[in-house]
């Protein structure tokens, strides 16, 4: 038994925006009356061209222009809003720091389909790019970790996978458009985040750039990344390029590259001594790409892998990998979806039902009473009926005063049983109980409409922030 | 486990983590062997002694087979069945040996048993529950309490009239048809011990049918299998059975006729 | 025709040929369940005595299922070559037994086209276990797909990487480990948990890619229903070296398997046109005593003669592999280890006598009165009998079909015990990969699925499959 759904991925980036549509094939591998639905195949069926992200005069995102771009792409793909079952809109890089980013994204989902919306932090962006580039899949088939460096205009987003599992994600202020140049070699812009580094090479806004200095800056970028891979020391200033937090994982013996700059690492070449050729985008992107190729290709210290996607890695990650499917035996009324941006409260000791209310209160009280929250847990544990019933009672009682949906998500495959007992004890309450979903404190989740008996969920993980 | 070893016990090779151990002496990549093993339940990464198994592998296999055989050849302990107040009947089969050799006799009752059942049990229930030992009494004793409790909660919630719960000794699946016919049940639900796999003597199946009848083909049955703690937990299976009962009642059919 | 005899002062009379055949059968719980077995040991021997005096002509003229009613009877009878038949039709079954024990390989081969399933089954009922091993050893049946199976001095194996949910990574994990034990020269063949076109095609492709990447001279196969495989071929979805189907011994029983002679003829024709393998033999069949009774298609005949009819059916398609899945069906057909061992030897002997390249899935289920020692006994006997191939699975435990069969270790050990090797090209490749030494024995590094990653680093950088 197979069912197909269409998933959309929309990426609004610093410089460019794009849309892809994927066909996800859901397969029920069970031959009994307990379905077991999983995503069997993912196939990208439409890739939009790369559009420049439309900006207003004040630097904010031009919402209306964005709507137009999007609608045109739907038309080209022969898809309608209602054909899209799920997906993710993400807003990446510096765009996410724009004032109206959040509004623009919400407006988009109204136009593009009411699927999940994820405002990406740099870590989620790293993770999605890693999946989209194929680093996760590669790592399943080799004994060493595989890292993906997604090098865009403003940032480099890194994700490390081992055996298909995410190990680390972080981001750096390294990118192809951090320095912009005019046709007559004048430096138009240097991102404040790399100002000290640029000064080291004598680069100043407004002055005519020295090609050699630009090449050295690009080479430094590549060298920093190489040292990160090989666990070699970084200077204080270089460490300052990390966004928010540093890396945790050890050596990265195998790397691949995605993002716009990766086009110059793998495919296109640039004549580094020819100004005209270097300046084809008015930035240092081609030089950075060439520098990375030199540093990593044929380097005996790291395996230099080829990604499945380059500039589209993030959007494909968003369209195909952001969504998780819940277990197939769950409790949820269709009309309660979609739910967006629900903060997660995680109960650490669901088996201690007598202390549960206290644990819950402590964690719940940081949110306003009217706020919809999700209660997450590993699971009720290995107890029997009595223990599960006690847990159901605690959950119903401790949320009794709340006007929201009683939304419980857990890892252990017991959602239908717990849901049934909660329903019986909390007559008239709106209840959603989902399993095979892991969510941690500080995460936010989006819940989509049920598909083939399972519920698509996006967990926006912020674990690497700490 | 370590505490017990210190207390003078040889390690317990029936512990599940024994199956996860890599016994290859110096693999080229331990990480990959671990990962390969994780991707399947197959007995990979066991290494060898010459061309034969290591002692631990051999004994683990024998232990897993032993528990499966005992699950089959041991008569069910009926303490729990009695505690829960089941009405007890037996097929034409007289002992385990006959049960295994004569599937035909494990599907039917004597006319006396049929008469007694009609006399003593509730007629025309919405839901008739039948518990059968099948090929593993262990499975019944391991799962019955949990699955039964949540099913009864669910049926109470839906307001179904539940018949006299019946236990059948030496039973094949088809006894549910005879019972359904005798008592005029709308939906009959049979909980039966599955043929044990290695190390899994506790797996149970549930067969359900709308107006079960020996005149209908086997495909009348809707099945939930693999019910045990490490498979589909009995509580979750029970909740699914409640859901399926609702579907059978609503659609007035079961098995292949029902597209689930 | 004589249907009576006296033994120890008692008269034993039999109804007809079918009754003699059934009662002459060694004890099987399936014949008892069918109500056709001898009532005691002496009656069983009396039936054997009567059978020993019956001629092969009488057996040919009394097939257990009438010619008019059954397409398998017709296929078998129509295939008989008259010259060979004329040579043997006057033999009694007792004579025929002695002929087989005394003849050379060439002499047996010469009369083989004159046989029908009933003759093959009849003589088997008079053979002791050692007789069957002794006679089978001089009946080598070779067949060629990408490689040639059945040559003297070889013991081949099917790598059976079954997985509970057909997870590709999990399947390939078992493949890697199997090859690292030198298993898989007969076929890399999966019993799928999911019988869908996509999933069957995906596994076939994955196996083929693996064989090509590591230059493994063998065959790929996914043991889905034949109609699924036909669709894979029709739509050109994947390369297929071997086409598989389970067979039964009567038209009625075949119906329960969703096949008949006409459908198999069609499948054979499509495969001939579309197969990805080289040689003239490209079909793979599995059988097993008792399946006809379980589908009510035994026509009152015993399970041994019904099994022999499966081989007559198989013969029509010049298969590369045929094996009985001897102890899979359960104790109501083969009760214990003793019956299972007997049946395994019978099936192998009958297959070879029929002229098909016979292997055996030496196996048992948990509800049989059998254990690992019974399995190992039968495997050793079959290795002595020059059985073409056995199965190889991790640790002897099939986690999808839930039964026990021979393991990677068993394959390696049996080769060492009997001095046999896999098919020559495969053995050579194992030596190149460092898995075999010059004697064809496992090396220090064998039995480690990660050895491919070590080899692969030099080739491509980490991906073994």
Q: Can you put this structure into words, describing what you see?
A:
Chain A: This is Reactivating factor of Adenosylcobalamin-dependent ethanolamine ammonia lyase. Chain A: Keywords: Lyase. Chain A is an alpha/beta fold and 466 residues long. Chain A has 3 domains: 2-120, 2-Layer Sandwich (Nucleotidyltransferase, domain 5); 124-304, Nucleotidyltransferase, domain 5, CATH 3.30.420; 326-465. Chain A has 14 helices and 20 strands. Chain A has a 7-stranded mixed beta sheet with strand order 14-20-19-15-16-17-18. In chain A, strands 1, 2, 3, 4, 5 and 6 form a 6-stranded mixed beta sheet that branches. In chain A, strands 9-8-7-12-13 form a 5-stranded mixed beta sheet. In chain A, a hairpin with a 3-residue loop joins strand 1 (2-12) and strand 2 (16-28). Chain B has 2 domains: 2-73, Ethanolamine ammonia-lyase light chain (EutC), N-terminal domain (DNA Binding (I), subunit A), CATH 1.10.30; 78-257, Ethanolamine ammonia-lyase light chain (EutC) (Rossmann fold). Chain B is 41% helix and 13% strand. Chain B has helices at residues 2-6, 16-19, 30-38, 55-73, 79-83, 96-101, 111-120, 137-158, 175-183, 234-251; strands at 87-90, 127-132, 166-169, 187-193, 204-210, 222-227. In chain B, strand 2 (127-132), helix 8 and strand 3 form a beta-alpha-beta unit. The N and C termini of chain B lie far apart (44 Å). In chain C, a hairpin with a 4-residue loop joins strand 14 and strand 15. In chain C, 47% of the residues lie in helices and 11% in strands. In chain C, the strands form 5 sheets. A 4-stranded parallel beta sheet of chain C has the order 7-6-5-13, covered by helices on one side. By secondary structure, chain C is of the alpha/beta class. Chain C contains 22 helices and 15 strands. Chain C folds into 2 domains: 4-137, Orthogonal Bundle (Annexin V, domain 1); 143-432, TIM Barrel (Alpha-Beta Barrel). At the B-C interface, helix 3 and helix 4 of B face helix 2, helix 11, helix 20 and helix 22 of C.
């Amino acid at each position: 038994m197979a069912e197909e759904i269409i998933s959309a991925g929309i990426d609004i980036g610093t410089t460019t925006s794009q849309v892809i549509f994927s066909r996800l094939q859901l397969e029920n591998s069970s031959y009994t009356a307990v379905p077991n639905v999983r995503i069997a195949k993912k196939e990208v069926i439409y890739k939009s061209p790369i559009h420049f992200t439309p900006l207003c005069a004040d630097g904010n995102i031009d919402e209306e222009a964005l709507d137009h771009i999007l609608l045109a792409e739907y038309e080209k793909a022969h898809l309608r809003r209602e054909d899209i079952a799920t997906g993710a809109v993400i807003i990446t890089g510096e765009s996410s720091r724009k004032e109206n980013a959040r509004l623009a994204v919400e407006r988009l989902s109204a136009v593009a389909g009411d699927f999940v919306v994820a405002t990406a932090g740099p870590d989620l962006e790293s993770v999605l790019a890693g999946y989209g580039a194929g680093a996760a899949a590669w790592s399943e088939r080799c004994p060493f970790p595989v890292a993906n460096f997604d090098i865009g205009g403003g940032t480099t987003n890194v994700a490390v996978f081992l055996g298909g599992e995410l190990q680390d994600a972080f981001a750096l202020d390294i990118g192809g458009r951090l320095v912009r140049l005019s046709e007559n070699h004048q430096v138009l812009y240097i991102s404040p985040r790399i100002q000290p580094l640029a000064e080291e090479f004598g680069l100043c806004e407004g002055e005519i750039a020295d090609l050699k200095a630009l090449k050295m800056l690009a080479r430094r970028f590549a060298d920093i990344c190489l040292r990160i891979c090989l666990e070699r020391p970084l200077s204080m200033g270089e460490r300052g390029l990390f966004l928010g937090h540093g890396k945790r994982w050890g050596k990265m013996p195998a790397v691949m590259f995605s993002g716009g700059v990766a086009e110059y690492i793998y495919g296109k070449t640039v004549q580094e001594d020819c100004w005209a050729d270097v300046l084809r985008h008015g930035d240092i992107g081609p030089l950075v790409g060439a520098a990375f190729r030199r540093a990593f290709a044929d380097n005996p210290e790291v395996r230099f892998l080829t990604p499945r996607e380059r500039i589209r890695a993030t959007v494909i990650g968003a369209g195909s990998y952001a969504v998780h499917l819940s277990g197939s035996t769950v409790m949820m009324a269709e009309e309660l979806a979609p739910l967006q941006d629900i903060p997660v409260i995680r109960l650490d000791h669901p088996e201690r039902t007598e202390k549960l209310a206290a644990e819950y209160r402590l964690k719940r009280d940081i949110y306003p009473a009217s706020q919809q929250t999700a209660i997450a847990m590993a699971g009720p544990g290995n107890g029997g009926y009595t223990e599960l019933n006690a847990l159901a009672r605690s959950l119903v009682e401790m949320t009794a005063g709340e006007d929201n949906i009683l939304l419980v998500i857990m890892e252990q495959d017991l959602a239908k049983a717990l849901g049934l007992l909660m329903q019986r004890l909390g007559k008239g309450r709106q209840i959603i109980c989902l399993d095979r979903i892991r969510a941690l404190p500080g995460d936010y989740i989006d819940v989509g409409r049920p598909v083939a008996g399972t519920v698509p969920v996006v967990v926006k993980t912020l674990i690497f922030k700490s | 486990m370590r505490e017990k070893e210190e207390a003078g016990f040889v390690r317990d090779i029936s512990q599940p983590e024994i199956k996860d151990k890599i016994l290859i002496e110096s693999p080229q990549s331990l990480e990959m062997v671990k990962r390969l093993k994780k991707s399947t339940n197959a007995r990979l990464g066991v290494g060898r002694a010459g061309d034969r198994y290591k002692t631990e592998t051999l004994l683990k296999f024998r232990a897993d087979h032993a528990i499966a055989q005992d699950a089959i050849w041991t008569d069910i302990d009926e303490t729990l069945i009695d505690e829960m107040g089941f009405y007890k009947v037996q097929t034409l089969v007289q002992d385990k040996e006959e049960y295994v050799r004569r599937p035909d006799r494990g599907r039917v009752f004597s006319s006396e048993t049929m008469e007694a059942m009609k006399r003593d049990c509730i007629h025309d229930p919405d839901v008739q529950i039948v518990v059968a030992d099948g090929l593993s009494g262990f499975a019944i004793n391991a799962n019955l309490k949990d699955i039964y409790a949540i099913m009864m909660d669910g049926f109470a919630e839906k307001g179904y009239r539940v018949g006299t719960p019946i236990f059948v000794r030496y039973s094949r699946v088809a006894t549910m048809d005879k019972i359904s016919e005798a008592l005029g049940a709308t939906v009959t639900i049979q909980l039966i011990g599955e043929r044990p796999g290695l190390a899994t003597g506790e797996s149970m199946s549930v067969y359900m049918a709308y107006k079960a009848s020996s005149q209908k083909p086997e495909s009348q049955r809707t099945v939930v299998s693999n019910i045990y703690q490490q498979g589909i937990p009995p509580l979750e299976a029970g909740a699914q059975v409640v859901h399926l009962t609702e579907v059978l009642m609503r659609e007035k059919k079961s098995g292949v006729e029902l597209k689930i | 025709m004589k249907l009576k005899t006296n033994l120890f002062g008692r008269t034993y009379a039999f109804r007809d040929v079918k009754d003699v055949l059934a009662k002459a059968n060694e004890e099987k719980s399936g014949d008892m369940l069918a109500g056709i077995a001898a009532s005691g040991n002496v009656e069983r021997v009396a039936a054997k005595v009567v059978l020993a005096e019956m001629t092969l002509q009488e057996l040919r003229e009394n097939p257990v299922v009438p010619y008019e009613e059954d397409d398998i009877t017709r296929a078998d009878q129509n295939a008989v070559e008259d010259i060979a038949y004329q040579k043997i039709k006057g033999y009694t079954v007792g004579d025929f037994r002695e002929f087989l024990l005394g003849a050379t390989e060439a002499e047996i081969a010469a009369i083989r086209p004159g046989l029908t399933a009933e003759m093959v089954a009849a003589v088997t009922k008079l053979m002791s276990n050692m007789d069957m091993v002794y006679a089978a050893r001089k009946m080598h049946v070779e067949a060629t797909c990408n490689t040639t199976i059945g040559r003297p001095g070889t013991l081949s194996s099917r790598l059976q990487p079954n997985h509970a949910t057909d997870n590709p990574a999990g399947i390939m994990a078992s493949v890697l480990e199997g090859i690292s034990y030198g298993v898989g020269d007969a076929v890399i063949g999966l019993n799928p948990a999911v019988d869908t076109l996509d999933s069957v095609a995906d596994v076939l492709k994955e196996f083929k890619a693996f064989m090509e990447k590591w230059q493994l001279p063998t065959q790929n196969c996914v043991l889905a229903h034949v109609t699924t495989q036909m669709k894979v071929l029709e739509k050109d979805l994947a390369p297929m070296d071997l086409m598989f189907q389970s067979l039964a011994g009567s038209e009625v029983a075949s119906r329960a398997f969703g096949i008949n002679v006409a459908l198999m003829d069609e499948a054979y024709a499509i495969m001939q046109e579309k197969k990805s393998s080289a040689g003239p033999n490209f079909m793979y069949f599995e059988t097993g005593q008792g399946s006809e009774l379980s589908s009510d298609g035994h026509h009152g005949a015993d399970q041994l003669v019904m099994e022999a009819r499966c081989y007559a059916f198989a013969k029509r398609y010049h298969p590369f592999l045929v094996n009985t899945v001897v102890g899979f069906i359960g104790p109501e057909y083969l009760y214990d280890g003793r019956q299972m061992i007997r049946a395994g030897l019978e099936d192998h002997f009958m297959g070879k006598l029929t002229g098909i390249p016979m292997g055996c899935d030496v196996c048992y289920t948990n509800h049989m009165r059998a254990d690992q020692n019974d399995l190992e006994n039968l495997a050793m006997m079959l290795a002595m009998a020059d059985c073409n191939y056995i199965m190889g699975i991790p640790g002897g435990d099939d986690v999808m079909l839930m039964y026990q069969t021979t393991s990677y270790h068993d394959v390696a050990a049996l080769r060492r015990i009997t001095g046999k090797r896999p098919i020559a090209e495969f053995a050579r490749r194992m030596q190149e990969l460092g898995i075999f030494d010059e004697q064809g024995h496992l090396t220090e590094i064998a039995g480690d699925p990660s050895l491919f990653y070590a080899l692969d680093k030099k080739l491509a950088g980490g991906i073994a499959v």
